[in-house]
Automatic annotation (TrEMBL):
It holds the Pfam family NUDIX. Keywords: Hydrolase. This is ADP-ribose pyrophosphatase. It comes from Saccharomonospora marina XMU15. Its cofactor is Mg(2+).
Length: 295
């Protein structure tokens, strides 16, 4: 076997050997109509003859999400542009880490055994996964991964409340302030949001690539959306529009995490009554500051 960048075993602090000099990553891909994509590992591979996820070693300077997508395309011929990455969960041992990247299909895909690392690929209903002889690490992680299958984080941002939380002159041009916030929010769809950064659930080592909706009202109603951020113009008042958008999101995809960013106490109570979660403007703005000026 010809070793590539990142290939090789690491003697981990946990006392076991793991594959991937810079860590490893796998893709937990869900097709809502067929289940999750499992790979039957070839006998010659590490933990061969078990069922696990397509994936492999992370290359130098590569993100775990990119590694999971690249390895999956190499092993299954599922193209990256047919997949929507939703979240990631990392098991970090200090000397080595493994990241499970959760994604869902954007369109029907056909998975094919594309190299010698697997003998079969199979779409398995989630309720049947436990019946397979699983790779021991995947078996251990499955109980915390399964509840998040095909779940998206939706951030509904109360533009007026957020831009008004800092005295930076926003009142002189509210439309421009809304556009600045829109452009700043775009970074979150690329960098992702860690659960702890906004007090989201589940806590721990979860990272989410959110769908972002910015709700604007008044002078900011003419703000246009951009590819990374959907803009929703309130027909009347912003609070009613946010409540309506929360209900629409939960009606369309009841299992998604819907988080409204606002400091308005009454609005927060209305959102929670409809099953949504809330976060404060300060947490969001601090997060955006961190992304723009990383320590």
């Amino acid at each position: 076997m010809l070793l590539g960048d990142g290939d090789g075993f690491v003697s981990c602090a946990c006392g076991r050997r793991h594959w991937g000099l810079h860590g490893a990553a796998g893709l937990l891909l869900t097709d809502p109509s067929r289940g999750v994509l499992l790979q039957h590992r070839a006998g010659w591979t590490h933990h061969g003859q078990t069922w696990a996820l397509p994936g492999g070693a992370v290359r130098t300077g590569e993100s775990p999400a990119r590694a999971a997508m690249r390895e999956t395309e190499e092993e299954t011929a599922v193209p990256a542009d047919a997949v929507r990455v939703l979240a990631a969960c990392t098991e970090d041992h200090g000397t080595w880490s493994y990241t499970t990247v959760l994604a869902t299909t954007r369109q029907p895909v056909r998975a094919l055994v594309a190299n010698e690392e697997s003998t079969e690929l199979r779409w398995v209903p989630p309720e049947e996964v436990d019946s397979y002889p699983l790779h021991r690490d995947f078996a251990a992680a499955w109980p915390r991964l399964r509840p998040q299958l095909d779940r998206e984080l939706v951030l509904l941002v109360d533009a007026a409340n957020v831009v008004g939380s800092r005295p930076d002159g926003w009142w002189r041009d509210r439309a421009a302030a809304a556009r600045r916030l829109r452009d700043r929010l775009a970074v979150l769809t690329h960098s992702g949001v860690r659960a702890a950064e906004l007090g989201l659930r589940p806590a721990g080592s979860w990272l989410w690539w959110p769908r972002v909706l910015l709700v604007v009202e008044g002078q900011a109603r003419e703000t246009a959306g951009i590819p990374e951020v959907e803009v929703v113009a309130a027909a009347t008042d912003g609070d009613s529009e946010i409540v309506r958008a929360t209900r629409d999101c939960r009606r369309a995809r009841p299992r998604d995490h819907v988080v409204v960013v606002t400091a308005d106490r009454a609005l927060r109570e209305r959102v929670r009554a409809d099953g949504g979660d809330t976060a404060g403007p300060a947490a969001l703005l601090d997060l955006l500051d961190e992304r723009e000026c990383p320590r």
